[in-house]
Description:
mainly beta; 2 domains; 1 helix; VAS1L protein; transmembrane helix
Amino acid sequence: LSLKFGDIGNLKGLVIRFLLTTSYYQLSVQNWFSLHRLQLLYNHSIQATFNATRIYAPASYSYHCEHVSSLQRYDALLIPSSANDLSKLWEVTFIDFQIQGFNIEEGHFAYAKDCASFFSPAILMGLVTSLILLLVLAYALHMLIHLKSLDRHYECKASPAYFAQIKDNDMGDEKEPLRSNGNESYELRNQQFCRIYI
């Protein structure tokens, strides 16, 4: 696939050539096309050659990417084919790049497979943040479920003091009655009972 600039000033002799290949993959049970190589020609001589990476789509689709470039800041999908090549002297960047080599109907692009990964750094950070928030929520729910009521009221009342007569036949662990001159002594006992409201 050749892109010629025609009579546009200094670009008159410039041609951008896209070498596309198609292959059948049994796993997806369909043909896929890929951009194999990009060549820059000037006055019919090859000036630079770039190998393309990760530029592929099903043959019935087109391929779209916001930036296809040889620069690292755009993820460098175009790599110079050789260290000794003049490609290192060129910087190539396509903005809003879309290509389709096969199965073109009525001169329009088919549905585009976008180069944006499903697991880009932004999406991964969003997933990690969501996971942290879910863990915090699960911990909070766990604590709420196992939270004991703080609305307990303790009401303790003392029964009126009474004097219980200490008898001689009390059990051995009871205190012995105090006797002096035939008078009986009484021991003061106080009983308490508590009511707990929950």
